Amino acid sequence: MTTPPIVAFAGQQAQAARDVNTASLCRIGQETVQDIVLRTMEIFQLLRNMQLPNGVTYHPSTHQDRLGKLQEHLRMLSVLFRKLRLVYDKCNENCTGLDPVPPEQLIPYVEDDSSKHDERLASQARPATEERREILEVNKDKREKREKRGYREREEMDGLLDRMDKGDFSVKTY
């Protein structure tokens, strides 16, 4: 039983490190931006609490300590910005070959028969549209019958009112 060479494994590991998922890079970029915001807030907090040496007695050691913290935060902020720039460049490098897709092409249309999924949805929609059409026809027929009956009843009421106005009170029974 032989062991694989270490050099080949190191090469595979380096290749995997180079081919980082773009989504992972975006996540790293998001976390870096959050760190930048946090560090910036800490810098402003330190600046707000720092007392200016304007003739007031202050402890030089305290001032030097706060100044050291401020410089450390600024140095770390610079490192974070460099990291963010590297992530940005790597994302752009990974996305150079991609053509931007217009949003209109991402919206599926019923007329577009480009995929089997669309055809399957259309075949499922056909019985539903046929059923809907039948229901609409039945409703239309019923509505027409109601309108005719209502028209006939209005005619009868008008006839009754005319006879009542003339004094003829004989009512026909059906």
Automatic annotation (TrEMBL):
It is found in: Nucleus. This is Mediator of RNA polymerase II transcription subunit 30. It comes from Hucho hucho. The lineage of its organism: Eukaryota, Metazoa, Chordata, Craniata, Vertebrata. Pfam families: Med30 (PF11315). Residues 128-144, 150-159 have a biased composition (Basic and acidic residues). Residues 111-159 are annotated as: Disordered. GO terms for cellular component: mediator complex. Keywords: Activator, Nucleus, Transcription, Transcription regulation. Component of the Mediator complex, a coactivator involved in the regulated transcription of nearly all RNA polymerase II-dependent genes. Mediator functions as a bridge to convey information from gene-specific regulatory proteins to the basal RNA polymerase II transcription machinery. Mediator is recruited to promoters by direct interactions with regulatory proteins and serves as a scaffold for the assembly of a functional preinitiation complex with RNA polymerase II and the general transcription factors. Belongs to the Mediator complex subunit 30 family. One of its GO terms (molecular function) is transcription coregulator activity. One of its GO terms (biological process) is positive regulation of DNA-templated transcription.
